[in-house]
Amino acid sequence: MTSLKDILSPFTAWKNVILEPVTIKDPINDRPGAARYRGFHKNDITKCIGCGTCEDICENEAIDMVPVEGIETKDGDSGLRPKIDYGRCCWCALCVDVCTTNSLSMSNEYKWIDTDPDNFRFIPGVDKKSWDDNEAGWKKPEPNYEFYGLKRAEMGELHPEERDHSFIEFIKGYSKQQAQEEADRCVECGICTATCPAHMGIPDYIRAIRNDDIEEGLRVLYETNPLPEICGRICTHKCESVCSIGHKGEPLSIRWLKRYIADQVESEHYKKILETENLVKNGKKVAIIGAGPSGLSAAYYLSLLGYECTIFEKLPEAGGMMRYGIPEYRLPYDQIDKDINYILSLGVEIRYNVNIGSDITLDQLHLDYDAVFAGTGLHLGRSTRIDGSDHENVYQSIELLRKITLGEEIHVAEKIVVIGGGNVAMDITRSLARLQKIKYGKVQTLATSLETEDKMPADREEVVEAREEGAIIDPGWAPQSIEIVDGKVKGLHVTQCLSLFDATGAFNPQCNLDNKKFFEADMVVESIGQGMDLGYISENIKDNLTMGPRGRIQVDKYFQTSLPWLFLGGDIIQGPDVIHGIANGHQAARGIDNYLNAKG
């Protein structure tokens, strides 16, 4: 039915008769685009990270990511920048809309006359153009104009009052719905893979979650990481610190997505999914010293290559610092066992309670095996050596954490001070706070460090969670002395720390001696770093090794020492963290395979 409005609408055009006509006298040179016109591209090189999402989304293949002189590849930046072919570009602006850093935009300039067609392929922001300073044009609309969510899917966890008196794991993990919701945020740029020490196929396993193909996700994990349950809980997640989504919102929960995959599959199904049911042995044997992440990783990949692997472990159970240095509320022992039991199912043998050097020598291992890999970790604590640090109630965090794992009773005072600002310091702080809550019904644990809070090496969530559980974190103070009265610890004297390093970059803390504090305590725990114990390497072997800085033995890219049969990895070479250990155990397996094949 025709309305009166429909009848009168054509006559409204007559109003234009009385308007002044618009005449453009020079339409070639004087015809600016609209304020939000999609013209030639601009790129802020300082904001661009070369993630390549613009290249991936372009259906016309008009964008190529290319290296640029003067821009180096580094963590979080591929070193590449988009080069645009205007013979292919359709000006749709999808590349601008998907840009994770908002570096890419379009000017409103659309006219360009040139006789050389090659000039119509250029790198915005690098190849200077007349419209670079033109503020008009198309930019991603703000706010909330994104192809991906800016907030993480919420992770369930126990509230502080539910967990502060228990060592039960408090992070619940993702449900299927939460994991897929989080996976949908990934733009598959691969910046994370380049930064991960193990170069895991992160976009690939996240895509598997999105597609609900958990078996494919597990296969991707095991290509580069045979400890996914462990790593999915306590990895230092360097990948998340460079996630391109993190430039506008919260970075992807890459670690928790890894854990989600591993949690969905029972270990008895691993062999079938990963096709490791009928491994053929090649008759060669490799000895591995230490059942930590690097030793387990090396054993896994060597077993896939057909080698008989025997791990010699001085402690009663496998895991190294993963088991004896990380509290169970962060990393439950049954999840450690799940990863390790699968590796054992491939024929790997672990001999426990064996000390290399006393029970069996490294020279003997050299005689009995075709190659040796050692990944013995950092199991020795370091002391501040301040006055009073030799008192019986001054402890090393590593020693206490190991005893907690072994189920041994430890001294827990009513008032405790922890010296240190790293993750191990937070682990012992939170462990002692729990034990205080159980024993005394209240928490009186304080942690202090040289670093101010913004520079503390501990993960931010560790600091937040420690405070939630009742511990006090008071950073930025340098320990001066431990006060001892009548043979008993009374507390820690500290002064304000102004800086850690001098102009040359050397560690040389400077303090304001006029700004002092005293932390009352009956017990002090030092957690300022760990050291290596290479006592199992005899002097005749050491004489043939090349030593590097800080007492570390030099190795090549395959972690092979100057003695061809001896390979070293783990925290004694690189790290300290689990993912580096996993990565160099994998690389050492390649090196051992190369060495033994070349040896014939």
Present the secondary structure layout:
Blueprint: H1 4-8, E1 41-43, H2 53-57, E2 63-67, E3 80-85, H3 94-98, E4 104-107, E5 121-122, E6 137-138, H4 160-163, H5 176-183, H6 191-195, H7 202-210, H8 214-224, H9 228-234, H10 238-242, H11 254-264, H12 270-274, E7 285-289, H13 293-304, E8 308-312, H14 321-324, H15 333-345, E9 349-351, H16 362-368, E10 371-374, E11 380-381, E12 394-396, H17 397-406, E13 416-419, H18 423-440, E14 445-448, H19 460-468, E15 472-473, E16 477-485, E17 488-501, E18 507-520, E19 523-526, E20 530-531, H20 539-542, E21 566-568, H21 578-599
Parallel strand pairs: 7-8, 7-10, 8-9, 10-21, 12-19, 13-14, 13-19, 14-15
Antiparallel strand pairs: 1-4, 2-3, 3-5, 4-6, 11-20, 16-17, 17-18
CATH class placement of the largest domain: Alpha Beta
Strand content: 15-25%
What is the CATH superfamily label of the largest domain?
FAD/NAD(P)-binding domain
What's the quaternary structure here? Answer: single chain
Distance between the termini: 92 Å
User: How many domains, in number, for the residues?
Assistant: 4
Q: What's the Cα radius of gyration? A: 30 Å
Helix share bin: 25-40%
CATH fold call of the largest domain = FAD/NAD(P)-binding domain
